Amino acid sequence: MRPGSKVYATRIAFAIVAGVLSAVINPMLFVLRPQVPAHAVVAFIVPMLIAMSLYMASYHFAKSVIKVSPTSLNDPSYIHKGGIFTYIIIWIVTWSLTATICCPSLLR
């Protein structure tokens, strides 16, 4: 597998994990802390923080665990920003599907 494909596959896997965590952790936050008002801003910031932190974790995972160096890629900046739009789309789709399936109480 080429180094660019390894980075891309890593981003896809981390986006799926971020989507599932965003759907599961966010409703649990409001159940555990009833004093926190369920505003749309808070309901969006928590999943955004999860997605951004896992995107940064995918960079470090690709660089240190898979050992993809920026010099082995055609564009050295690809390790930073490669697959970002795919990451965002997969994260949103996974987040919405997981929230719909496992938390139907959010539909009320």
The overall number of domains is 1
Low-confidence stretches: none
**Class from secondary-structure proportions:** mainly alpha
Q: If you compute it from the alpha carbons, what radius of gyration comes out, rounded to the nearest whole angstrom?
A: 16 Å
Number of helices: 4
Helix proportion: over 70%
Q: Please trace the helix and strand order, writing H or E for each element.
A: HHHH
Mean pLDDT: 82
Q: How would you describe this structure to a colleague?
A:
With 108 residues, the protein is an all-alpha fold. The chain has one domain. Helices cover 73% and strands 0% of the residues. It has helices spanning 3-32, 40-65, 78-81, 84-102. Helix 1 (3-32) runs antiparallel to helix 2 (40-65) and helix 1 packs parallel to helix 4 (84-102). It is elongated, with a radius of gyration of 16 Å. The mean pLDDT is 82.
